[in-house]
Specification:
The chain is mostly helical. It has helices at about 1-20, 40-45, 50-55, 60-85, 85-95, 95-105, 105-125, 125-130, 135-150, 155-165, 170-180, 180-195, 205-225, 235-250. It has one domain: Tetracycline Repressor, domain 2. The protein is built from 14 helices and no strands.
Length: about 250
């Protein structure tokens, strides 16, 4: 199980290091500070919410970086990508503009860092413990975590920003997909691949089944929320989607 988390982080790090963009929409290398890997400042961002106990083990630079990411997310959510400016990010983070640029060389790099943090939320969960459960419970817990992340209001708003801006910044959508949905697919596909010989699973193509599982969780409900046709899934809808997705994986014909 330790291998699962290591591979998930490594895969995300590889994708992040290869996918970024500049104002013209061309690929450029993301600074090493953005890459997801065990022990990097980005990996520590999720721990920042744990309180002062987590901060004691972090350097001043890491604390400032986490503050910039929080400030950047707040500005992007309030103003969109095009309307965001680094002066406001610096003010919200309580640091100088020079400090912001020292951690993130451009607005594009900062947005990439915010999206990478979203990917970190996926692998921050104790996946070893989750996937050690019996199949039904493991899949239910993973599904519930995915619904919490995918339908979170901040995730929805970031999704809207990407859709609105990807025509101007073509690589924005690619990076969002690689750091979010693709991480989810990879994590679940590895679990399914390891259990292909388990009689409880009837999975021929782990990647395709992982994609189908996650799509059953999202469905048209996600599109309705994204388009503001409805606000959120009802508790009954959440449970129905989870159970349907679990049945699909445990009884899939391939």
């Amino acid at each position: 199980m330790q291998e699962l988390r290591a591979k998930a982080r490594a895969a995300a790090a590889t994708r992040a290091s290869r996918s970024s963009y500049n104002a013209s929409g061309n690929i450029k290398t993301i600074p090493k500070s953005i890459v997801i890997s065990k022990g990097t400042p980005t990996a520590d961002v999720s721990k920042d919410r744990a309180g002062s106990a987590g901060r004691r083990g972090r350097t001043k630079s890491q604390v400032k970086r986490a503050a910039i990411l929080r400030g950047g997310k707040a500005v992007f959510l309030a103003s969109g990508f095009g309307g965001a400016n680094m002066d406001e990010v610096a003010a919200r983070a309580g640091v100088s503009k020079m400090t912001v640029y020292r951690h993130f060389g451009s607005k594009e790099d900062l947005f990439a860092g915010v999206i990478t943090e979203l990917g970190n939320m996926i692998v921050a969960e104790d996946l070893e413990r989750i996937f050690a459960e019996r199949p039904e419970e493991a899949l239910r817990r993973f599904a519930r975590k995915m619904i919490e992340i995918v339908f979170d209001p901040e995730t929805i708003e970031l999704h809207r920003i990407v859709v609105a801006e990807c025509h101007r910044f073509p690589k924005l959508g690619q990076f969002f997909y690689a750091s979010g949905p693709q991480v989810c697919i990879d994590v679940l596909a590895r679990y399914l691949k390891r259990n292909r010989t388990n009689p409880r699973f009837r999975v021929i193509d782990p990647v395709r089944t992982a994609e189908e599982f996650l799509e059953l969780l999202r469905g048209y409900g996600h599109l309705r929320v994204l388009l503001q046709v409805s606000k959120a899934l009802s508790p009954r809808e959440v449970e129905a989607r989870i159970e349907g997705a679990v049945r699909h994986v445990l009884h899939a014909a391939g």
